[in-house]
Structures are given as structure tokens and as C-alpha cells.
Amino acid sequence: xxxxxxxxxxxxxxxxxxxxxxxxxxxxxxxxxxxxxxxxxxxxxxxxxxxxxxxxxxxxxxxxxxxxxxxxxxxxxxxxxxxxxxxxxxxxxxxxxxxxxxxxxxxxxxxxxxxxxxxxxxxxxxxxxxxxxxxxxxxxxxxxxxxxxxxxxxxxxxxxxxxxxxxxxxxxxxxxxxxxxxxxxxxxxxxxxxxxxxxxxxxxxxxxxxxxxxxxxxxxxxxxxxxxxxxxxxxxxxxxxxxxxxxxxxxxxxxxxxxxxxxxxxxxxxxxxxxxxxxxxxxxxxxxxxxxxxxxxxxxxxxxxxxxxxxxxxxxxxxxxxxxxxxxxxxxxxxxxxxxxxxxxxxxxxxxxxxxxxxxxxxxxxxxxxxxxxxxxxxxxxxxxxxxxxxxxxxxxxxxxxxxxxxxxxx
Length: 411
Prior knowledge:
Helices cover 30% and strands 11% of the residues. By secondary structure, it is α+β, with helices and mostly antiparallel strands. The longest helix is centred in the C-terminal third of the chain and has 20 residues.
């Protein structure tokens, strides 16, 4: 079964023996690699096409496709990838993501091809449609939207938010912060660019999208409320927990990591999986530089905070994770738990090795932030991450990146 040649595709690609491409690439066309941003290295294109033809069954012959790509690079400095190549590249980039525990599902990634779009307003509109398409009333679907690539002399669009949905961190006159402390700087920037925050400011105000084209300043675009599914948090045993009025959004869509496929860089490619309960309960709501809610929860639970040796943080943390997992389950919103996902990751590792492939993994990201020793992923080593592996999602550009460890690792 081949990947449907459509703009939106989620059809798995077949596997074929690697011996299919055990040939020398044609060299009838002489090329000179372009220079500057957006110029494609022909050898990167050759390496990608070799892998693509080894793992899928394209209708066009390898020699013919390679000859066409070489000619296009020689003439323009870049080339246009087919929808099948784009889909395969995006999926393999996920497969290569050493920090992601949810890679068992890499071959089911739904690809939304929007490479014709580079204008910020249209990018924002499609980001909103991405959220609606991926949310599906809580049945979260792994999805990526790919916007215009960098081309020689014409850079693609850039999304400055590290995820499509983030909550604002409002500076108060008292010096305190209301909301997500990690996003104070992004909130300040949005305000400086013209965003009008709610008055009074809340703890869970969705930030606007900041999107730029080329070297222009970012433009600000609000996300309509109907595109953001949120889950009110409750605890299965403590009715008073609901009085804390906590909530979290359903879709972790990472949006500032460039995607590189076959030498082509796509700077704006928002993609999502679904949350792990520990990402929200043991990190976002409880990290000291985020919402820092462990002291509040410990007080509500009546825990002794006189000493670290009372393990009050540990006890409060487990109850927060329980509340998050329970709330998402009761709301019918997809959320993985760290025990099940750990087992599935080891299944992915086994499948990759059976396919003759390495499975690089960053241990510090794969092991969950709570009860790590109770999961099988804790008790072993993994292949070292390869920063040169391609296709890949690359770290966010330094100028636009917020110094964070993004959640949504199951994406």
C-alpha cells in the first residue's frame, strides 16, 4: 500500500529491502552546491532519496528521480519534494527524535502539506486549523503541518512560540507573576508587538501566535477559543481539588523546531502527539519556574513541610499526576501514562533493531520525571543520539528560542 498522493496524508508507507538501492547514483549532471540560506547540498538530497527508495516503493525509478533532482538543484539551488517524499521525511524525523518516548507511532503521523503558504496571516490560520484537525473532540491525532521551505533568497516563515498553545506569564505591579512563569518574556514581547492581554490577567490566558516572514518583525494573531480544548482538573479522591480551578490544554504542538529533509529546511512545521500525564502533572504545573504548585497542594493535603525528609514534595507530586491523569481520562481526552508508554517505547526499540536500524535515545528525556525506577526504560542504556542524523527536527534558532525544556515529549 503506497502513500496517497494528497495534501493531507496518514497512510503508512511500506518497507522494502535496502538492497533495492544498492546502486551507484547517476553522475551525468554536474552540479555546484549553492551557498547561503536555503541552498541545498546535492549530497544531502542523494542521501535522503537513497533512504526513501530503500524503505518505500515509489513509482518513479531511482535513477530518473535523482537525475531530475540534481538538475533542479543545479538550476535553482533547491528542489521540490513529492508528497510521498515529504511524508516519509517527516515521519522519519519523528523516528529519529532521540528525546521522544512516543516514537512507536512514527509511521502514523498525519502530514498536512501547506508548502505554498508563507504569509504570516495564512500561516496563523492554518495553525488554528491544525489544532482543530488534531484535537478531534479529544481523540488526539499525531499531526504535522509543513509550511514553505527556505529557498535561496527567500526564507520561509517562522513561528516564534515554542508551542502553538502556551499560557501567558503576566508581570504584576507587586513583582509577582500570574500564570506560567516560563513565558514572561514571550508575554512581554507579545504585548510590545500589540497584544492586549485580558484585564484582569488570568493564570491560563492563551498567548497569541507570533509569526514572521523573512527578516520582518513578528505579527500577532489570537487563537480563537474554539480551537483550544482545555480540561478542568479534578482529583478522584479529593473534591476540594476542583476549587483550585486548574486546567490544561489537550494538544502539545511544538512549533519552533525547523524540519530538515533531504537538505531542505522547513522552518515552520508545527507538530503534535499527545501528552503524558507526568509532563503536565510532574513538570508544567509543579516546576518552580512554571506554576510551582507543590507547596499549595501540600498545604491542602495537610502534609508536613517542615523538612524535605518528610517527602512532602514526592507525595504532593503523585497526587498532582493522579489528578491530571484522572481528569483527562474522565473528559475522554487522549493522554498516555508513563508506565504504559515506557513499555511501548521498548517495543519500538525492539522493532527498530529488527529492522536493522539504530534507535538513539536521550535517557534523561525518555525516563519519566516521577517513579522512573518503576519503569523498564530506567534500567538500561540506549544508542547515543546522533546530531547529524537526517531527516530531523533541529533545535530552535537561538534568537527565537526560549531557554526551556519543551513538554509534549510524546509528540
